[in-house]
User: What shape does this take?
Amino acid sequence: MLENFYQNKFIEAGCDEAGRGCYAGPVFAAAVILPKKFYHPLLNDSKQVKEKDRNELRLFIEKKAVAFAVAKVDNDEIDRINILKASFKAMHLAIEQLKKNPELLIIDGNRFNTYQNIPHHCIIKGDGKYASIAAASILAKTYRDAYMLELHQTFPMYGWDKNKGYGTLVHRNAIAEFGITNYHRKSFNIFSENH
Assistant: This one.
């Protein structure tokens, strides 16, 4: 059972990212402020939720959230600044777009760069503990999946409709056969397994 809030005094936003370990595509992040009595029986860490349920949850979260925002940082910038910094940047961009200002941020994971002096707490496996982080993980994942599905139309050989840019065997074999696209992260060691 997810906790609704980390604390009750301040307006808190949960933040999470999706696509950090992918070979291709942007990293997406979401920030979500939930109302006091938010509940959905299927809400959990997005990796534990079936795709169909994630899409249903996305609509529910967008309808019920006090505020939410999703942002992305593309593969070129990931190559320029590194994936960890790109993940933080995507979270910062999402927080910046929130229609309501959070007074506290709860972040999935163990590290974060402070955003505009707003206090934050990093929570390992936070997407399985707090509703707002779980909601952020659902939004980041569903937006990213939709983006990768669109790219798949142009580059069907990489199997992005299934692997969403992760380094599956199908994806690695396609890289070996067709090379990389403008959407691949060149700073990731994506050739080493094939050569």
About this structure: The longest strand covers residues 12-18. The chain has one domain: 12-178. Strands lie at 12-18, 27-33, 67-73, 104-108, 120-123. The helical segments are 51-64, 75-81, 83-97, 131-154, 160-163, 169-178.
